[in-house]
Amino acid sequence: MPEEIRHCRFQFLIPKNWNSSHKPVVLHFAGTGDHKYWRRRVFLANPLLEQNKVASIIIENPFYGLRKPKNQERSNLIYVRDLFVMGGCLVTEGAVLLQWCEKNGFGPFILTGLSMGGHMASLTATVWPKPVGLVPCLSWSTAATVFTRGVLSKAVDWQNLEKDYYSDSNYRDLKEHLKWLHAEENKERKRKKISSFIPESNIDYNTLTNFNYNDPKKRIKMEIVEFMHVLMDECTHLVNYDVPVDTSLINVVAAKDDAYVLRDGVNSIESIWPGSRVDYVERGHVSAFVLSLDTFRNTIVDTMNKMIEKHYSFN
């Protein structure tokens, strides 16, 4: 783990006065490229503070802002493993911050984030042993499609990955083991199956437009894409994690025309977390970032009120 990411950094915005005896807090996780705090503070945390008297904790991502390693350029993670280190850090930091807030009399809590931040919020919700509100925006059940089929797949250094993959037979063994493992786990899961890169998948990965380069030298072998996909599914697929305590407090906001977070061929949130709700905005991924902020904030507030009514009304 790089030295720069070892210490969690965050901002805590607290209202001078609360609307009631409750002290609600929203934890905001960063999306891809969202360095430091200002975007989440200006567009989400400040309005929640001013209009609803809701506090916010804005966590700075590992590998971003002041936590960015010196040899990393912008948001470009150097290794695939850095994404998993980032996720592990954020889940741990989120859980610790929730515990600290609870100890100091704050609550209830809502976890939220846009895009990658939404997925990090979802993963954090799976480790919290009490009811927690969850509003993942513009994210879904796995990060696998984001990096193998979505727009961001263009940003992956496939040539270097291919070189590494064929340089060590352990990678090929790992891929086959993960495929076997997912198939075996699916036999036990019944409805909650990982549905990509298994025999019953209806996706023809050989026809994906993102990898049909005209230059044969730039063509990506589907074996490499398959390895990336099963590795991402193993580490990020929500079906591999515990179900949050109260799924009725989960409200996903997804973009109908999302070209970054693809939903076809993978498990829906509702199938993994029965009782959860998914709302759609009639936009793409980027346009929703800019034009659907009111929807995100309203969903956070609605989920907060629902949680207070359901779990805090006796206070």
Structure in words:
The protein is α/β, with parallel strands linked by helices and 315 residues long. It has helices at residues 38-52, 80-103, 116-125, 144-148, 158-167, 169-189, 222-236, 269-272, 285-291, 293-312, and strands at 10-13, 25-29, 55-59, 109-114, 133-137, 251-255, 277-281. The strands form two sheets. It has a five-stranded mixed β-sheet, sandwiched between helices. A two-stranded parallel ribbon has the order 6-7. The longest helix is centred in the first third of the chain and has 24 residues, at 80-103. The model is unreliable at 207-212 (pLDDT under 50).
Helix content: 40-55%
- Unreliable spans are 207-212
How many extended strands?
A: 7
N-to-C terminal Cα separation, in Å?
A: 43 Å
| Rg, nearest Å | 20 Å
Q: What's the overall average pLDDT, rounded?
A: 87
Strand content: 5-15%
Strand neighbour order, sheet with most strands: 1-3-2-4-5
Number of helices: 10
Q: What order do the helices and strands follow?
A: EEHEHEHEHHHHEHEHH
